[in-house]
Amino acid sequence: NNYYLIMKYNWEDVKKVPKLSGGFFEVFFNRKISILITRLLANTPFTPNQITVFSFLITVVTVYFISTGIYKNLIIGAILIQLAYTFDCVDGEIARLKKLSSAKGAWLDSLLDRISDGVLILAVTISTIE
Questions:
Q1: Are 93 and 39 in contact (CB under 8 A)?
Q2: In this predicted structure, what is the pLDDT of residue 8?
Q3: Long-range CB contacts (< 8 A, 24+ apart) of 11-20?
Q4: How many Cα atoms sit within 13 Å of 44 on the Cβ side?
Q5: Calpha distance 87→70 (Å, rounded)
Q6: Measured between alpha carbons, how far is 112 from 58 in angstroms, rounded to an integer?
Q7: What SS3 state is found at 1?
């Protein structure tokens, strides 16, 4: 499909994506990086739901690193979870940019966010067991 070979969305379109409120770190760090990733993905066939699942898969990999309790792996896990949270911003930006927001997508995003929270807590707990 040649649809995505044509630059439908430009940098000005991406910069106009409405920003949702969030915490300090999200507003001043995650969104600064996520908007750049959104710019790269804007003219690709990736859907918001695919990006949501990708973010969740990063979290699943992160669980392994954190659960080991090994210092080097904890650092890798921290970097990966930050990447996952950044992609969690990208899915919404892509949805709003491409006008693909849906109740199903919001439900999937929320569900995977809660599962991510739970498995990360479990990973941290496992990492403290000697």
A1: no
A2: 77
A3: 11/39, 13/42, 13/97, 14/38, 14/39, 14/42, 14/93, 14/97, 17/93, 17/96, 17/97, 18/96, 20/92
A4: 12
A5: 25
A6: 12
A7: coil
Closest CA to 58 of 76, 42, 44: 76
In terms of Cβ atoms closer than 10 Å to its own Cβ (0-12, 13-18, 19+), residue 41 is buried
Give the C-alpha distances (Å, rounded to integers) separating 107 from 58, 101, 113: 19, 11, 10
**Per-residue pLDDT tens over the stretch 55-107:** 999 999 999 999 999 999 999 999 999 999 999 989 998 998 888 889 999 99
Residue 102: both structure tokens together: 């849906």
pLDDT tens sequence across 7-52: 577 767 776 666 666 666 676 678 888 888 998 998 899 999 999 9
